[in-house]
Each structure stands twice: as structure tokens, then as C-alpha cells.
Design goal:
- The complex is a heterodimer.
- By secondary structure, chain A is mainly α.
- Chain A has one domain.
- Chain A contains 11 helices and no strands.
- Chain B has one domain.
- Chain B is built from 11 helices and no strands.
- The longest helix of chain B is centred in the first third of the chain and has 31 residues.
- In chain B, α3 packs antiparallel against α5, α3 runs parallel beside α7 and α7 runs antiparallel to α10.
- By secondary structure, chain B is mainly alpha-helical.
- Classes of the chains: A mainly alpha, B mainly alpha.
- The interface between A and B is large, with 37 and 41 residues.
């Protein structure tokens, strides 16, 4: 029991360090908050007339539709930033000192992921607040907002697992940073920014099977219509699948790092 | 301009070229970002052409000017980030104590940025033509490259002035976000009349809007004098302001 408590304290401490580190360094916080907010404003203003297209789902405004996309973008970039920060820790030798400490190795990765989840939570609250201020209410009310917040938070943690796995495997911040454009590739090939039926091929077909589309629809539904059990369960299943994949990658990368030292 | 100044500018441009040759990965993010945005936005918003009054049946043709200018903006911003790195590493101090005038050092960095901007522009254009963007004609293509070079110069001057002010790579998001906002708060996604109210107001006064329109004309129709000179004047205005700001920063900085 005391071992579990000690591990939780380590996870909490490393998670807090991760959050503080992000807010202190503009390079880390900018991709999570500034760029998605800027793109949300520009895309809403630039493509807002899209709601008039035949077949566009009924929404209050394009901003209401886009909030889930902005949250998705933010949580993915939070995961990427978490991976970069972990790689910087490896480059600077901080992770080696943690490996030498009498703590479970998985708490080191979990601590970073808890920090990423906290950033996901922050992003969800930030964009819901933007929606409320600029007239895009959450149709699902408080339960709907809670579902959107929960999915964004755990989504950030699961994507962060992939960033951490790559950081552990490569140990180089520049490589993890190089994945930044790929985040946008995956996002554009999902329903983050537009309804699937109105996307252009081949993006449309890929979006139909992209697990991120399920997550984003799970976040969007409570905002534009109300909580839908089917969408929420599909989103949770997608997050679980991504988490299992990232956990497997992280465990293998961690074992490799501990065995070879690099 | 004497021969020694020209040699200094050439040396700084050469250093930038060496970085590309020795670190091929250095150019990849600058090429990938606008290309991915072009393909992604085309796939996502491609059906906006069905809106009444859009005025074009090819979203790829409508979007390509924004993407090439975005590539120029990123390249210019990268010049500022690289300068901040040189400040942190002490390399700029060595340049500052050399007998080269400050404006020559600045010109070298800006010219290098303008030349480097041709790489993402060419990549985006090749991809755009592959997915069906209209051929703008030789005059349209030359105008596009000229506007790309000038936009990269504006972005480089802007980013350099920030690098000289903050002297840290932490200012990178400010450099990138500033250029992103300037280029996208135009008629980037849709014609002016289809933009939301606030963005329409911003786009009307944004000096980058005439530049986007000037590059776009060749992809959507024929090149006309009116749109061209509006774009040229807007770019010259921005370049003058940013050059003055960055030169002031160069003159104020001490080794």
C-alpha cells in the first residue's frame, strides 16, 4: 500500500513538473493553446459559410462545430509537446537520474502522461470557455461538457503515450519535434474540421476509418446536439485502442532504453 | 555598394545554403508544413466551391497562392529563429565585431531567406499541379515567385526584429504565429464576401490581402495590372516598415 502511495506521489510530482515546465516555456504552450485558438478563429471566420452547404449537419454556428476540432488539435499537440519535453529530459540526463532513483520506471512515463492529461483538461476548459464567450453553447449542458472534457483529457493522455514512446526510443527532441507536421496530416484525415460527407476523396474515405474521427465525434456530439451513448462509447473504445497501442510502444521503448542505455 | 559588402552578403547567403546541404532535414519542416496544409485544407474544405458566389470551381487553384505565401512566411520566420540561435550561441557577437556594416549583415540574412523560400514554393506548386490546380501561365508563375521572395523578406525582417529584441529561441512562436495570422487573415479560405463579418473587416485592411489576390489572379484567370500593382505596393509598404524595424534592431544590438 505504501509502495502504491509512493508511486502516486512520484506520478503527481512529475505531472506537476510537466505542467509547470509547459507554462514556463512559450515554445511548449504555444502549440497547445495559441496555434489552435488562432486556427479556430481563422477557420471559423474563413469557412463559416460552410454551414450553408447542403448536407451540413444542423448546428448553431460553424464555431460550435469547430470547437471539437480545436480541442482535438490541442490534445494532439499536447501529446507531441509532452514527447518533446521527455526527449529533452533524456538529452539533459534528467531521466537517467530518475532511472537511478528507487522508484518504479513506469511512474516516470506515467508522470509525464498525467501532465499531458492536465494540459488536455486545460485545453478542453479553454475552448469550452471560448465557445461560451463567442456564442457557441454546449447543447448537452453540464453532462455534455463533462463528457467533452473527459474525452479530451484521456485523449491527450493516450496520444501523449505515442509521443513518449517515440521520445524513449529515440531520445532526441528534434525527432519528436519532426512529428509536428504529421499531427496535422492525421487531423486533416479525420472529421476534426469538416463533416465526413462533405469532405473530398480520398480524405473522406480515410476519415471514415480514422480512430481520431471517433474521438472527435464523441467530443462534438455533446456540444452540437447532446450526449449520445453510441458516440461516447465509440470514442471511449477509440481512446482505449490508442492507449493500448501507445502503452505497448512505450513499454517496448522503455525496455529497450533500459537494456541498451540509449 | 562596394565589392566587400557584396562579398559579405554572398558569404551569409552561402552559410544559409551550406546549412541546407549539410543538414538536409533543416528544409523539411518548411516544405512539409505548407504542403500538408495545402493538401489537408483542399481535402477538407474542397466543397466550399459549391457555395453561391464562390467564383471558382477548383479549390486547389484558389488555395495554392495562400500555401506558397505561407511557405514564404515560415521560411522568413525560421530566419529569425536561426538568428536567435546564433545570438544564444555567440555567433552574432563575432559578426558584430567584424568591420561589416549592420545593414549588410541584415541584407545577407534577408536575401538568404528570399532564396530559401523558393524551395517550399516549388514543392507546393508541384503538388498543387499534381492534384489539378490550374497552370497560371509563365507570367503568373514569375509573379508568384517574385511575391514569394518579397513575402519571405518581409517575414525575415519581422522575425529578425523579434529575435534582436528577445534574443532567445523562445520567441519562435511569436515569429511563426505573427506570420500565420497575417497570411491567413486574408481571403485565404474564401472570397471576401463569403467571410464572416469580423474576418471580412480584418481582411479588408490586411496588407497581405492584395498580395494573396495578386498571386491568385493567374491561378483563377488572367494577370491584370490593377491586382498586380496593388499587391506590389502592399508588399513594398510592408517591406519598408519591417526593414526599418529590423535595421533599428541591428543598429541597437551590442556584442
Amino acid at each position: 500500500m505504501s509502495g502504491l502511495r509512493a508511486n502516486l506521489r512520484v506520478v503527481g510530482a512529475l505531472g506537476m513538473r510537466s505542467v509547470r515546465q509547459t507554462f514556463r516555456r512559450p515554445q511548449l504552450i504555444a502549440p497547445i493553446v495559441i496555434f489552435p485558438t488562432l486556427l479556430l478563429a481563422i477557420q471559423t471566420g474563413g469557412a463559416g459559410s460552410a454551414v450553408e452547404l447542403p448536407g451540413f449537419p444542423p448546428v448553431d454556428s460553424f464555431l460550435q462545430f469547430m470547437l471539437a476540432g480545436a480541442m482535438m488539435q490541442s490534445l494532439m499537440l499536447a501529446g507531441n509537446s509532452g514527447g518533446i519535453a521527455l526527449a529533452v529530459d533524456i538529452e539533459m540526463g534528467f531521466t537517467d537520474r530518475l532511472f537511478a532513483a528507487p522508484i518504479s520506471r513506469f511512474t516516470i512515463v506515467l508522470g509525464r502522461l498525467v501532465g499531458t492529461a492536465a494540459l488536455g483538461l486545460f485545453a478542453a476548459l479553454w475552448f469550452l470557455a471560448i465557445g461560451l464567450v463567442f456564442g457557441a453553447p454546449v447543447e448537452g449542458g453540464v453532462p455534455g461538457a463533462l463528457v467533452a472534457i473527459l474525452l479530451t483529457t484521456i485523449g491527450a493522455m493516450s496520444i501523449g503515450g505515442i509521443g513518449s514512446a517515440i521520445a524513449l526510443r529515440t531520445g532526441q527532441a528534434s525527432i519528436v519535434q519532426g512529428l509536428f507536421p504529421l499531427v496535422f496530416v492525421v487531423l486533416f484525415l479525420s472529421t476534426a474540421f469538416f463533416p465526413e460527407q462533405l469532405m473530398v476523396e480520398p480524405a473522406r474515405s480515410i476519415a471514415a476509418y480514422n480512430p481520431l474521427s471517433f474521438v472527435v465525434e464523441g467530443i462534438r456530439e455533446p456540444i452540437v446536439e447532446g450526449v449520445d451513448a453510441g458516440d461516447t462509447l465509440a470514442a471511449l473504445a477509440a481512446v482505449a485502442a490508442i492507449s493500448a497501442f501507445s502503452l505497448l510502444l512505450s513499454a517496448r521503448a522503455l525496455r529497450h532504453r533500459l537494456r541498451t542505455g540509449g | 555598394m562596394n565589392r566587400r559588402n557584396l562579398a559579405t552578403i554572398a558569404a551569409i547567403v552561402d552559410r544559409s545554403k551550406n546549412e541546407l546541404i549539410r543538414v538536409p532535414g533543416a528544409a523539411i519542416p518548411g516544405v512539409l508544413a505548407p504542403t500538408i496544409f495545402f493538401l489537408g485544407l483542399n481535402g477538407v474544405f474542397g466543397n466550399l466551391t459549391q457555395l453561391t458566389g464562390f467564383g471558382s470551381d477548383s479549390y486547389a487553384s484558389f488555395l495554392v497562392p495562400v500555401s506558397v505565401l505561407q511557405g514564404a512566411g515560415f521560411t522568413g520566420a525560421a530566419t529569425g529563429v536561426n538568428l536567435a540561435r546564433d545570438i544564444e550561441g555567440g555567433w552574432l557577437d563575432r559578426l558584430l565585431v567584424s568591420p561589416a556594416p549592420r545593414w549588410v549583415l541584415l541584407t545577407g540574412m534577408v536575401v538568404a531567406a528570399s532564396l530559401r523560400a523558393f524551395i517550399p514554393a516549388t514543392a507546393v506548386l508541384l503538388v498543387a499541379f499534381a492534384v489539378g490546380a490550374h497552370w497560371p501561365g509563365l507570367d503568373g508563375l514569375l509573379l508568384t515567385y517574385a511575391m514569394v521572395a518579397a513575402t519571405a523578406a518581409v517575414a525575415a525582417c519581422y522575425a529578425i526584429s523579434l529575435a534582436l529584441r528577445y534574443k532567445t529561441q523562445s520567441a519562435a512562436p511569436l515569429m511563426q504565429a505573427g506570420m500565420l495570422a497575417l497570411i491567413l487573415m486574408t481571403t485565404a479560405y474564401a472570397p471576401l464576401r463569403l467571410l464572416e463579418g469580423w474576418l471580412q473587416d480584418v481582411a479588408e485592411v490586411n496588407p497581405m490581402t492584395p498580395v494573396v489576390d495578386a498571386v491568385r489572379q493567374g491561378f483563377l484567370g488572367t494577370i491584370g495590372w490593377t491586382d498586380t500593382w496593388h499587391g506590389v505596393v502592399a508588399l513594398l509598404g510592408m517591406l519598408t516598415v519591417m526593414a526599418v524595424l529590423s535595421l533599428r534592431g541591428m543598429r541597437r544590438i551590442t556584442a
